[in-house]
Amino acid sequence: MRFARFVLIVQAVVMIGLSLAYWLRPYEMANLNGMLLMETASVSHMRVYYGGLQLGLALFLLWAMSAPERVRAALTMLVITMLALVAGRLGSLWLDGGELIGFDLASLIYRVGAALLAAVALLLMRERSVGVPVAEPELDPRPKRPPIDDGPPKPFRLGDGPAAPADPEPASGLEPFRRGDPDGPSLETTPDSPVR
After folding, report:
1. Is 65 exposed, middle or buried (CB count within 10 Å of its CB: 0-12, 13-18, 19+)?
2. Model confidence pLDDT, tens digit, residues 76-122
3. Which residue has the higher pLDDT, 192 or 5?
């Protein structure tokens, strides 16, 4: 987790620095990229898209460092964004016939390195979280019932079925009468009792 946060904070600092450079020095930054800003609208676009977008991404990376699930999302976003910029640069070289191979080579190397570092951090986070069981919150307060067996019926065997209920303790201390109980009252007739 420390390595992942380190990668995110380095990328956020780089993006904030570039954002401020495009905001405060748009002409110089455009000249470094081989562009010439001729109108006020082009200066505004340089500040908004090159400066504002990078600042937004940097703020997202800083915000994401507060929770592990956000760190994963930020690293994934970083890998995808950097690889998309690398693919755009390589596609541009192919469309231009490879004439600008030396142009902005440092930026291309930086983006490939940033994507690789973010991917390594993401893989390290996944490896560490594989062995840690995550307790799921109890959502249903009802008692759990055994699953229903949808298979074919099984033959009945003696002893199968629900357990016999336990005899409750008598409240008055008297036992209920049971037929054939040797200790209970007898139904035998005595010479004094009438015959039925």
Report:
1. middle
2. 999 999 999 889 888 887 887 766 666 677 788 888 999 999 999 98
3. 5
Phi, psi of 182 (to 5 degrees): -65, -25
Distances (CA, A) of 108 to 21, 56, 103: 19, 21, 9
**Residue extents of the structural domains in the chain:** 7-65, 67-130
**Residue 152 CA to chain centroid, in angstroms?**
40
Write the pLDDT tens digit of every residue in 165-194. 666 555 555 666 566 655 555 555 555 555
Which alpha helices (DSSP H) does the chain contain, by range? Answer: 2-24, 26-32, 40-45, 53-64, 68-95, 105-130
Q: How far, CA to CA in Å, does 193 sit from each of 39, 50, 139, 180, 182? A: 127, 114, 68, 20, 20
